[in-house]
Amino acid sequence: MLITRWLEGAPLSALLDGRTDLLPEGWRELDPGDAADLAARLLGHAIYAPAACTGWMHADLHPGNFLLLPGGRLGMLDFGAVAATPGGIPAPFGQLAAAVLAGDGPAAIRLARQTGALPPDAEVDPRLIIELLHPLAATGADTSFTYSRGWLRGLMAHLTAPRFAPALRSLTPPPEYALVWRATLSAAGLFAQLGATVPTRGFHLAYSPGFRGGIPPAQPQQRDAALRYAS
After folding, report:
1. CB count in 10 Å sphere of residue 97
2. Which of 83, 133, 217, 226 could form an S-S bond across to 57 if both were Cys, CB 3.0 to 4.6 Å?
3. Which pLDDT belongs to residue 53?
4. What is residue 196's predicted lDDT score, i.e. its pLDDT?
5. How does DSSP assign 124-174, residue by residue?
6. How many whole angstroms from its chain centre is CA 73?
7. Beta carbons within 8 Å of 86's beta carbon, 6+ residues apart
8. Span 6-36, pLDDT tens digits
9. 174: pLDDT confidence band, cut at 50, 70 and 90?
10. Which among 6, 177, 13 is positioned nearest to 23, based on CA atoms?
11. What is the per-residue burial (b if ≥16 Cβ within 10 Å, else e) of 187-218?
């Protein structure tokens, strides 16, 4: 049985574009920065909590699929693309992020092989894997992280840097993890468009058992630290 419900609200794009006249009660009264931070916190829970609680994760995360509802609430639309997450966020995802934060190259290589992302006979410099994935993992190094469009542009430039080509040629995300990886990157993109300060580490600790079990202590955020390899 499919049950649908009509939602009255403003598209998330109204907040992104500064169209405050369209925002409903509970949103238009907020300072733009506070509204962006609230939207990002609600987005984070809406994206990651279902994966942990229901075994499904929305995998088509763009502004058109979210509505700002009266009372400072958030609505999520269009579940045509979802990732199956039986047991929650796959443990290797969080374990890999923890290994990257700890600078543990051998563990990162082991986890990549364990998930099938790296063939058993592929030879990849562990330091290159740590360097490649560090900007994403570093968003969970401290209690909060401030995203920005500049950070997102730097991340894309970092991931496509020529020096990572040898590692990227060997790394192939397993099909069963493809949508989860897509959702993770898309969530970061939404946070960056909002320019929000996000408790990313808290989301990982709450919803990612693999991260929770292997994470090092929090480190204070340094400006541009997450992209120190991207210059």
Report:
1. 26
2. 83
3. 87
4. 97
5. --HHHHHHHHHHHHGGGSSS-EE--HHHHHHHHHHHT-GGGHHHHHH----
6. 20
7. 55
8. 788 999 999 999 898 899 999 999 999 999 9
9. confident
10. 13
11. bbbbbbbbbbbbbbbebbbebbbbbeebbeee
pTM for the structure as a whole: 0.84
Sorted by sequence, the CB contacts under 8 Å of residue 189 that are 6+ apart come out as 61, 152
The closest of 159, 153, 136, 165 to 226, measured between CA atoms, is 136
Go through the chain and tell me how many residues it has.
231
Q: How many CB atoms lie under 10 A from the CB of residue 180?
A: 19
Residue 2 has pLDDT above 90, yes or no: no
pLDDT tens across 68-92, in order? 999 999 998 877 777 888 888 888 8
Q: Distance between CA atoms of 53 and 65, rounded to whole angstroms?
A: 21
The mean of the pLDDT values for the chain is 86
Burial class of 139 by CB neighbour count within 10 A (0 to 12, 13 to 18, 19+):
buried
Tokens of 99: 């290994």
